[in-house]
Amino acid sequence: MPRSASRAALLAAAWLFVASHARGQAPIAVDSPRLCLPSATSTLPSCRHPAFHSDWVRAVVLWSEGALTTGDVAQVHDLLRSSMGRIDAEGTLDLRIRARVLCGEAAARLGRAQDARARFDAAIQLWSDPAALGWLRSKGADAESRTAIASAVDAVGRAVFHLAKHAQREADDATGRLDPPPVDAPDPAARSKQTAAYRQWVAVQLPPWMKAREASLTAVERLYRSVFDIPPAPPVRWSVAAAEAIGEMWAAYVTQLRSLPIPQDPPAGHVGSAYRHTPLDPVYEPFRVRAKGAYVLCLGISSSRRFFDATSARCEAWLARNHRQEFRALVEYVPPPTNNGSWLDDRRVAPRSAP
């Protein structure tokens, strides 16, 4: 059995053990989960273990989540696609949504963009259906109900984020390319002609491109911001990721504008780099403000929801790097520990013996 398959199956095996123990049944034997491992002749739908059938949908979802992390993408996609009918018939709303999102993510990794979009749209539609409100009202305040609601909201947030990311890639393919004419000819006469052509390009072709680019990025930003509107409360992980994606998108646009050449020499007494960017300040400053606002939102969500991950750290680092007067990285206040992991740092000093 492949190592990745055995690791991914641990989730399903663990759920089988927990489910049987909660029902007062005898614990599942160690080798029993092998009956449920996908292989050439046996798949999860044909599992023969009696305790598996009542929790079949949950075990499939748990196994698929583990298998995606280990790289069994095609196997996850085939399993969920062929089992979606039974998942809809036997699974709860949160498991049905998670199954569609996992299938869509597997399809996206396989390069099947249309299939992935259809799966993500189906998951969002399930959560937008009025029946979802009844399902929410039927849930109590116990830990299992809260976990089910949180997992469903997180899956919907993942679907919305992936759809926005796909729309951003399409926008980059359509309007992201910018090819200014060169202005680096060594000969003065040729450089003069290039400068004239470049000025013509800036006056005629650049404004329409900027208008189309800004419109496409604004549309993508609206898709990212729809993560913040997921009821009953937006998922914190994907809210942070969406805010960072918005900031990164506008910051990249600013970088693209700043990279445009200025075909003239700086006057005496001016530093070249400062003079180079001064004429462009009024152009890209509004987009720098939008990028900063998105990164501040990213950090604000992390602070208010008490959630901090690698995405939050990137937002903090960007603000500390680009707006140092207002923001400081946490490491500047609290230095990192100096413990290098050596056993010498953790050894205990033996007490002195009595004389």
Structure description:
The protein has 355 residues and is mainly α. The chain has 2 domains: 3-157; 176-338, no CATH class. It is built from 16 helices and no strands. The chain has helices spanning 3-22, 50-53, 56-70, 73-90, 93-109, 113-128, 130-138, 143-175, 188-204, 206-225, 236-258, 272-277, 281-304, 310-322, 330-333, 343-346. α3 packs antiparallel against α4 (73-90), α5 (93-109) packs antiparallel against α6 (113-128) and α10 runs antiparallel to α11 (236-258). The protein starts with a helix and ends in a 9-residue tail after the last helix.
Descriptive terms for the model:
355 residues, mainly alpha, 16 helices, elongated
Short description:
The protein is mainly α and 355 residues long. It folds into 2 domains: 3-157; 176-338, no CATH class.
Largest sheet properties: none
How much is the average pLDDT?
78
**Residue share in helix:** 55-70%
Shape: elongated
Task: Supply Rg.
Answer: 27 Å
Distance between the termini: 62 Å
Helix and strand run? HHHHHHHHHHHHHHHH
Number of helices: 16
Extended strand count: 0
Overall tally of domains:
2
Layout: helices, strands, pairs:
Blueprint: H1 3-22, H2 50-53, H3 56-70, H4 73-90, H5 93-109, H6 113-128, H7 130-138, H8 143-175, H9 188-204, H10 206-225, H11 236-258, H12 272-277, H13 281-304, H14 310-322, H15 330-333, H16 343-346
Helix pairs in contact: 1-3, 3-4, 3-5, 4-5, 5-6, 5-8, 6-8, 8-10, 8-11, 10-11, 11-13, 13-14
